[in-house]
Amino acid sequence: SEVEKAQKADPGQEDTIFGKIARKEIPSDIVYEDEKCMAFKDVNPQAPVHVVLIPKEKGGLSQLSKAQEGDKAILGHLMYVASLVALKMELAEGWRLVVNDGKHGAQSVFHLHLHILGGRQMGWPPGQFLLP
Predict the structure, then answer these.
(1) Active site includes 113?
(2) Whole-model pTM?
């Protein structure tokens, strides 16, 4: 499970699977790309639409809690691009944006990434889905 992976993940890993995807060393189903970031379909989707959005350059952004003053531009860009991706994926009825941070947040890859989830009614509290 992702929780088990997060418990074993190394927060200090220099290179990650997302770095390899950003460099196109590993194929992915890219739905959006610009000079700063890339969005691709999750290989283990948790909703009918599940896209992962990453900055191309990891820099010091292994996780959101490590963000610094100088990261504000890329963080804002990622939020804006999330809305573009949601529009492109036809999520006009709504969607959820998730950032897992650290072991207890179930972060299994230490390269900042945002999950764009949609295509069905989301439940509340987060983590629950209402069945059709």
Answers:
(1) yes
(2) 0.90
